[in-house]
Design a protein that fits this description.
The protein is an alpha+beta fold and 191 residues long. The chain is built from six helices and six strands. Pfam families: DUF5819 (PF19136).
Length: 191
């Protein structure tokens, strides 16, 4: 009981220090605070001022396996976004995890990696591993057999604004973009 109460108090204190204005304590212990907060307890204000999606993303994965004769075999692309959409569409009470896990993993990866797909910080490496693990878990549930590497393809298509809508969001004019991430190694235990 004491352990639960202590953990709860420490959690509340660390979350408070994270969301509070910058001060000497939060600056001094920022590394420890961020280690506790990310990625599971991250706080943001999107609930109060949501930023609607201006693009539609399709995230697909393909795997690479080595056959018994040593040749590399690459699978067809598997649409991870379609699996998520189907889970939400046919579920009366879809969880936020089902709706947002893959999308949030991708946006976090994009925020920390930019366009060159290199991890320049421990946080960036963590988001890369998180995105890879989600893809491995989802592909493994639908594809039989082991594989040694996985690659993601993200197709981004702008959502055109309504011609009758008035507001701060201009109509999307950007072309469809397809981004291929590097081939990531997968260990036998799936990580």
């Amino acid at each position: 009981m004491a352990l639960c109460v202590t953990t709860a108090l420490v959690h509340v204190l660390l979350v408070f220090l994270y969301v509070a204005p910058s001060n000497q304590i939060s600056q001094r212990y920022s590394k420890q605070i961020n280690a506790w907060i990310y990625p599971f307890f991250e706080q943001n204000w999107r609930l109060f001022a949501p930023n609607p999606e201006s693009v539609s993303r399709q995230i697909s994965a393909r795997t690479e396996a080595t056959s018994s004769n040593g040749s590399k075999q690459v699978s067809d692309w598997f649409d991870l976004t379609a699996v998520d959409s189907a889970d939400v569409e046919h579920n009366i009470f879809p969880s936020h995890t089902t709706q947002n896990m893959l999308r949030r993993a991708w946006t976090s990866y994009l925020e920390t990696h930019g366009g060159d797909d290199r991890s320049y910080s421990a946080r960036a490496a963590m988001f890369q591993k998180y995105l890879r693990n989600i893809a491995v878990e989802r592909v493994s549930a639908h594809q039989p057999g082991p594989f040694q590497a996985i690659q993601l393809r993200v197709t981004t298509q702008p959502i055109a604004g309504s011609p009758h809508a008035r507001g701060p969001y201009p109509a999307a004019k950007a072309p469809v973009e397809t981004r291929y991430l590097p081939l990531w190694k997968v260990t036998p235990n799936g990580n």
